[in-house]
Design brief:
Beta-lactamase, alpha+beta, three-stranded antiparallel beta sheet, five-stranded antiparallel beta sheet
Length: 304
């Protein structure tokens, strides 16, 4: 498969001029990002790399980080994790409060904000230094010690994060939060501020395409059963209330973030990351979704 030719075709076919969405503005630092940015990187199972555009530029990964924290929580709790968070698509916006009371404080899935905050509570409760251990985890699976939090973005999120603070308090009132609110939201704002490139994200997500093993070393990070669960959740819940559309158009498990990044995987084949900060009405990268639809169409490779 000539992936570089496919990527070059995509880069020639589409650009920021072809979409009408907006850069995220509710987090002040994200509103400053140049809407013209566009990059894509493919990391293959034979360790080949293919890319175009701004694929090595760092950006705020935001909700993509929820896959990393879920993996860490599953290593700690195994199947008991599902007593605290469910595995169903929500059908509601990522920051919705409406379902929590009806469902006794059990969030629909770990990728909506409520679910990710419960995961944060678990990590804050069980780890000595969750912020450092998350960094260590991501640096290890990418083989890149330079990956770090963007402290400016974290502070920007904290200054406007009233809804997430309200979510934690509400879930705590319903009995599904153990720790104090402040360390939970501090960890959550930091995890969302992780700054990574498409190249780094494609390396990080290769463990989900490679049965839980680091491709370059063969080291086992996650059990195959855990990877199966995470990939299933990415397929059904990875794109807020647009997961069905992404499956329909692209046909891969993946996860998006309001920083404009999307990562998707094809088991045993590749990991692909794309970044364009222009978001559609659902909070997903408009150009990123178009690029991935073209990628699976031109390559003829998806999970369906």
């Amino acid at each position: 498969m000539d992936y570089q030719k496919i990527l070059d075709t995509i880069y020639d076919e589409i650009s920021y001029r072809d979409v009408t969405g907006k850069v995220a503005s509710y987090i002040p630092e994200l509103a400053k990002v140049d809407r013209r940015k566009f990059g894509m990187h493919v990391y293959c199972g034979d360790e080949q790399h293919f890319s175009f555009g701004d694929s090595t530029e760092l950006f705020s990964i935001q909700s993509i980080s929820k896959v990393f924290t879920l993996a860490m929580a599953m290593r700690l709790m195994g199947e008991h994790l599902w007593d605290r968070v469910s595995v169903e698509p929500s059908g509601d916006p990522f920051n919705s409060l409406t379902q929590l009371e009806y469902e006794s404080g059990i969030p629909r899935n770990p990728f909506i904000n409520a679910g990710a905050l419960v995961i944060s509570d678990i990590l804050v409760d069980q780890l000595d230094d969750p912020k450092q251990e998350l960094l260590d985890f991501v640096r290890h699976i990418t083989g890149d010690p330079s990956i770090d939090y963007d402290k400016t973005v974290a502070a920007s999120e904290k200054s406007t994060g009233y809804r997430n603070i309200a979510l934690v308090n509400y879930i705590k009132a319903l009995g599904n939060i153990k720790c104090d609110v402040e360390p939970i939201v501090d960890f959550y704002f930091h995890q969302c501020s992780l700054a990574m490139s498409c190249e780094q994200l494609s390396k990080a997500f290769m463990i989900f395409a490679n049965k839980g093993k680091i491709l370059s070393t063969g080291e086992k990070i996650l059990k195959p059963k855990t990877v199966k669960r995470i990939n299933a959740l990415m397929q059904t819940c990875g794109f807020y209330d647009e997961a069905g559309e992404f499956s329909f158009q692209v046909g891969l498990p993946g996860k998006s973030g309001v920083g404009g990044g999307i990562v998707a995987i094809h088991p045993d084949n590749y990991s692909v990351a794309v970044w364009s900060p222009i978001l559609n009405e659902k909070g997903n990268s408009e150009l990123g979704m178009k690029a991935l639809e073209r990628f699976t169409t031109l390559s003829g490779v998806s999970v369906f």
